[in-house]
């Protein structure tokens, strides 16, 4: 898998670096069923993109933390809240099938992505598996 992660990362960095506008942003989406490995793939690619970007675009002092240019924004933060599942026609099924497409809030995701595109940064929700609900404004995404 490392070869695939490397190839994808090596394809993204030159494309992003070639942009003539500093405000141009790349948003890359991954689709797949629950448990397919989307978060793993995204994390691996983001780690590599940040490392490659640092190596190819900047010459920083080794004591300085390199900039983060890629961030993972997981879909988990866009789950419907448990209280929203409780309000559905069949709350028991809604809780049992959490993770199915209809248990997410796509309008909220779209609003977040539009804000990111228009403003350049956004605070997005994460998901706390301990409490079983999204955590608002827990992930800072800054597209440089």
Q: Your description of this structure?
A:
It is a single chain. The chain is α+β, with helices and mostly antiparallel strands. It has a single domain (2-142), classed as 3-Layer(aba) Sandwich (Rossmann fold). The protein is 42% helix and 12% strand. It contains five helices and two strands; from the N terminus they run αααααββ. The protein has a two-stranded antiparallel ribbon with strand order 1-2. A hairpin with a 4-residue loop joins strand 1 and strand 2 (133-142). The longest helix is centred in the N-terminal third of the chain and has 20 residues, at 38-57. It is elongated.
How would you summarize the topology of this molecule?
Elements lengths: L1 H16 L20 H20 L24 H5 L4 H6 L9 H14 L1 E8 L4 E10 L2
Antiparallel strand pairs: 1-2
Helix pairs in contact: 1-2
Provide a concise account of the structure shown.
By secondary structure, the protein is of the alpha+beta class. The protein contains 5 helices and 2 strands; from the N terminus they run H-H-H-H-H-E-E. Helices cover 42% and strands 12% of the residues.
Q: Strand order within the widest sheet? A: 1-2
Which residue ranges are poorly predicted, with pLDDT under 50 across at least 5 consecutive positions? none
Shape: elongated
Counting structural domains, the number is 1
In CATH, the topology is named Rossmann fold
Q: Provide the succession of SSEs.
A: HHHHHEE
Number of helices: 5
- Overall pLDDT score: 87
User: Do you know the CATH architecture?
Assistant: 3-Layer(aba) Sandwich
Largest sheet properties: 2 strands, antiparallel
The separation of the N and C termini measures 28 Å
**Record field, number of beta strands:** 2
Radius of gyration, rounded?
Answer: 17 Å
Protein name: P-loop containing nucleoside triphosphate hydrolases superfamily protein
GO molecular function, one term: ATP binding
InterPro entries: P-loop_NTPase, PRK/URK
Keywords: Hydrolase
């Amino acid at each position: 898998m490392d070869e695939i992660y490397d190839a994808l990362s090596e394809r993204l960095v030159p494309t992003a670096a070639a942009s003539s506008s500093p405000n141009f942003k790349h948003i890359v989406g991954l689709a797949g069923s629950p448990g397919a490995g989307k978060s793993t793939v995204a994390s691996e690619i983001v780690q590599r993109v940040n490392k490659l970007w640092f190596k190819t675009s900047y010459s920083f002092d080794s004591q300085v933390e390199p900039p983060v240019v890629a961030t993972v924004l997981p879909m988990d933060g866009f789950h419907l809240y448990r209280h929203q599942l409780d309000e559905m026609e069949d709350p028991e099924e809604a809780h049992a099938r959490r993770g199915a497409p209809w248990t997410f809030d796509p309008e909220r995701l779209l609003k977040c992505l539009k804000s990111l595109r228009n403003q350049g940064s956004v605070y997005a929700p994460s998901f706390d598996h301990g409490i079983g609900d999204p955590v608002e404004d827990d992930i800072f995404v800054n597209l440089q």
